Amino acid sequence: xxxxxxxVALCFGVSVMAGKYSREMNEQKPSGSDEQTVEFRIAxxxxxWEKAKRMQLSPVRQTELHSDLKIQExxxxxxxKMKVEGMDENGEKEAQLRRNFNVILAKYGMDGKRDTRPLxxxxxxxxxxxxxxxFDDPRLDKLWNKAKSSGKFSSEELQNLKREFQHHKDKIxxxxxxxxxxxxxxxxxxxxISPLEGDTKDHVLHQKHTDLKQKMRDLNQxxxxxxxxxxxxxxxxxxxxxxxxxELWEAAKRANLTEDELDxxxxxxxxxxxxVEKHSHYQEQLELSHQKLRHVEALGDKEHIKKNQEKYNxxxxxxxxxxYKMKKHMQDLSxxxxxxxxxxxxx
Length: 347
Prior knowledge:
Organism: Nibea albiflora (Yellow drum)
Structural class: mainly alpha
Shape: globular
CATH superfamily of the largest domain: RAP domain
CATH topology of the largest domain: Receptor-associated Protein
Protein name: Alpha-2-macroglobulin receptor-associated protein
CATH class of the largest domain: Mainly Alpha
Keywords: Receptor
């Protein structure tokens, strides 16, 4: 009898410890004041964040990464609830989350690969970089140089146009990363026995390629907009100034929405544009604060160093907070436009 009780107790203890450690490996909570504060509730996201700090990314890149990881955390925690409720049976959402995570790693140079992807778009074959080339793409550089020398743009309009060109360059970079990530994921799955078989597996693969095709269409439409802007200039009735907002507005106009829906969305996009501008302002302030901190550290005045470090930490925290809210709002708007467009197309 005593032996049986001992076996039961041991089994119970092992199961509790196993549950405890598996839970702690996946979800972490802020620790006490005697230990380092945990930034994210998911272990792998904390590992990425700690690695990023060791890599000494620029202050702005760090805040961008933090916002991306916060979005990933939100999506993964939502997916865990879905899984408990018996949803995502075919694993499509899980595959998308894994793909998004791999994109984040590649975007910030933490996927173990030397990042040559920005120089590997289809437009860059046999292309030598020249002094006037600032966008790593001959088509963009040619358009930019033509617009800059056309005399059609004021200094402010040139700055706005340059932001749109830079945004398009970033979109090309993200597309190349996503395409590379999807290709590597598929190669891995070919060599592994997958739980997704038959029609389900084909559906997931089809969805990945559909997403890539849509992104390529978006890139082509974005380039056509830049080409038109470069030749014709900005019109007086331009709705928005920020590239990300313009991109959402163009997508909304293509989504076959009603006039009332477009008017409502336009108002929401104006509020979103204010967030984007606020985020850009804080990024600039963060960079200036970082430069000042480096200068003060070189002088060696401990009192000034402490004061400037506190100011820098405050601005960095605020920039991360605004960046997360801005990216979450953009994600919500993208989903909203996609859903409404789909509903109209199904009618």
